[in-house]
Amino acid sequence: MAGWIGTVDRRTLGRWAWNGAAGVALGFILLPLVFVTWLAFFEQAIPAFPPRGYSLKWFAAIAENQKFVDGFWLSLQVAVVAMVIGLLIGVPAALCLTRYRFAGREPLGNLLLLPLVVPGIVLGTTLYVFHVEATIWTGWPILGSIGALVAGHILLVVPWSVRLVSASLAGVDRTVEEAAQNLGAPPLTTFFRVTLPAIRPGIVAAGLFGFVVSFGNLEMSLFLVGAGRTTLPITILQYLEWRIDPTIAAVSVLQILLIGAAMIVTDRFVRLSRVV
Amino acid sequence: MARLELEALSKHFGHTVAVREVSLSVGDGEFVVLLGPSGCGKTTTLRMIAGFVTPTGGRVRLGAEDVTALPPWKRNTGMVFQSYALFPHLTVAQNVAFGLEMRSVPRPEIAPRVVEALRLVRLEGLSERLPRQLSGGQQQRVALARALVIRPDVLLLDEPLSNLDAKLRETVRVEIRELQRQLAITTVMVTHDQEEALIMADRLVVMSDGAVRQVGTQQELYERPADRFVAGFVGRSNLLPGTVIGPGQFETAGGIAVACTTDGAPGPAVMALRPERLVLGPAVSTLVNRVSGTVELIGYLGAYIDVHVRLTSGDRIVVSQPNRADGQTPKEGDIVEVGWSREAAVVVPDEDAARPQT
What we know:
CATH topology of the largest domain in chain B: Rossmann fold
Low-confidence stretches of chain A: none
CATH topology of chain A: MetI-like fold
Number of helices of chain B: 9
Strand content of chain B: 25-35%
Number of strands of chain A: 0
Mean pLDDT of chain B: 90
Number of domains of chain A: 1
CATH superfamily of chain A: MetI-like
Strand content of chain A: under 5%
Largest interface: A-B, 17 and 25 residues
Structural class of chain A: mainly alpha
Shape of chain A: globular
CATH class of chain A: Mainly Alpha
Radius of gyration of chain B: 24 Å
CATH superfamily of the largest domain in chain B: P-loop containing nucleotide triphosphate hydrolases
Oligomer: heterodimer
Distance between the termini of chain A: 44 Å
Number of helices of chain A: 12
Number of domains of chain B: 2
CATH class of the largest domain in chain B: Alpha Beta
Low-confidence stretches of chain B: 354-358
Order of helices and strands of chain A: HHHHHHHHHHHH
Structural class of chain B: alpha+beta
Shape of chain B: elongated
């Protein structure tokens, strides 16, 4: 009898410990977000606790600051274009890597994942030097161009799309594709009618991650933006050099809301918890 | 529906031979089963008929057409896969309609044909379900309806029953057989389950090591096995190696002289004795072949009783007796006399002895 109570107690204790650890971890992740959000509503320009009062004026300040507005639009455009092109490269690459056995398959797979491993600063510097050389060699205005910036961001998206789409493809039953062919579907029809629907969650997740990674990228973009053209993270950094008022916090809140909204919308199409 | 002809069909993977010159003719509306242990090349043969595997030699003819070089999507075959391979994101009706859409069947014609196909497999009410909402048996029937609705020249079944539980398998195999007869559709099935094969087939093809060992009806395979492998694989046999002495005369390696019906050339061979053709007890006295031995083991199987007898020659054989209420079953340790008729002793070539040991 005593033993039975003992096991129940131990089990309950274990569950408490588990929940407690999860709670601490979650708090650790959420606390900065909470503080940033709180700060965005402070009334005074120099952040100090406790706040003197609350105000929405910092949000209004963003809209009045053309640099933030321009930076936001540039980041959004770059992220969307990089995401789309990154998927157009990543999905076929993942197909080849998972479906065919060819010489150099593994090195190629690793090469496509490399941008994930190389630090952003290194990637940025390398691309910068490359753009300088390319501009000299070709005489084209490559350095600091929007095309060069997007190309750099595509490098950030590709590893995510290759990785996530490969993972979905590995779970696709090949005999289902054979069944489609047996019923008269040529390979391309088979891909669009059978394979693509099966890997759609992976593609959506890859797109989301690619977008988020591109939108928030600072280190690499620092080297790639041209004069008078800055992405949102760079605008924030430049603003911070001179001021520390809660405008930055307000911008961060908007960014968190945007990405959060993207995740919620994505989750309506595919359960993110099932693919990531 | 059409005839299916395989002409010296072969498949080599590098140095391994998966299928060795298989020739087979399947008549219009006939149900042929490829039977053999795993790795015997039966599935590769089926996949060559469907076009998923490119043969390294030989031809596949479907009706009047040589389809050897055609890709799967240009051959009119309907295949039921072992895993059913239903499209997980499509409903039952959409799964069945897929092949019709691929054939550009006009839309108003598709719906009634889908309904008809689902009625054939008794799934009318489930057309809007997704595959994951169905039981294994229902999924199997959707796969069958999907393959039948396109009116294929030949229906290909790849171990279609192996994922069903034993009870369901017994009813489904009869259902498939009746449906196949009713539609008179040329069918090739692959299985390793000989009971399934015997019940469903018009004709069987026994394969091993990539080659056809024997083609024939159930009775032909059972009564006149072509070689040692078939004798051992189809039904049960006591296999006693020995030598053919002359016409109708065989001597086992243990020294038992047997009267049999062989007209084979003298030389090494194997005698196959079906357990149920062996006789114990007083009835033995009328038989030409009689050997005494000791009962070593009794296997009680309900309808039958297996009596394992160690003969004086040292060979051990199994005698299967019907379990009759009045029957007298020997006990372990009894000395008994085993007898069999001239016809019961089937002498087959010993291909294992003839082939060099690998």
